[in-house]
C-alpha cells in the first residue's frame, strides 16, 4: 500500500507521490503535501501554460515562470489558465 498524504489541493487524504517531483525545497513541500491525482492536475495545467505561452522549459526564464506558477497552483492563490486558451471540444 502506498504512502498517504493530506492533499493540499484536493483537501482529502490520498496516495502520495512516489518520489520528490521537483528539486529543492519546493519539491520536498510538494512531496509531503500533494497527492498523485493533484500532481497530474498540475502536469495538465503546466502543459497548457507551456503551449499557450510557447515556453521552452529548458530556458531559465521559462523554468522560473513555471516554478512560480507551480507554487501558486498548490500553495497560493492558484495558477490561472491563459485567456487565449480554448479547450478542445
Write the topology of this structure.
Blueprint: E1 4-6, E2 13-15, H1 24-33, H2 36-52, H3 60-75
Antiparallel strand pairs: 1-2
Helix pairs in contact: 2-3
- What structural class do helix, strand and pairing data support? mainly alpha
- Helix count? 3
H/E element order: EEHHH
Radius of gyration: 14 Å
* Relative strand content: 5-15%
Shape: globular
CATH domain topology:
YggX-like
Mean pLDDT across the residues is 92
CATH homology superfamily name: Fe(II) trafficking protein YggX
Identify the CATH architecture: Orthogonal Bundle
Give the strand line-up of the largest sheet: 1-2
Largest sheet: 2 strands, antiparallel
Binned, the helix content reads 40-55%
CATH class: Mainly Alpha
Tally of discrete structural domains: 1
**How many β-strand runs?**
2
Give the CA-CA distance, first to last residue. 37 Å
Explain what this protein looks like in three dimensions.
The protein is 48% helix and 7% strand. It contains 3 helices and 2 strands, in the order ββααα.
Amino acid at each position: 500500500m502506498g504512502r498517504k498524504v493530506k492533499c493540499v489541493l484536493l483537501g482529502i487524504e490520498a496516495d502520495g507521490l512516489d518520489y520528490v517531483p521537483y528539486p529543492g525545497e519546493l519539491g520536498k513541500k510538494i512531496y509531503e503535501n500533494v497527492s498523485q491525482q493533484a500532481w497530474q492536475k498540475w502536469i495538465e495545467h503546466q502543459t497548457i501554460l507551456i503551449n499557450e505561452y510557447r515556453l521552452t522549459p529548458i530556458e531559465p526564464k521559462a523554468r522560473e515562470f513555471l516554478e512560480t506558477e507551480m507554487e501558486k497552483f498548490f500553495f497560493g492563490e492558484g495558477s490561472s489558465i491563459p485567456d487565449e486558451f480554448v479547450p478542445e471540444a
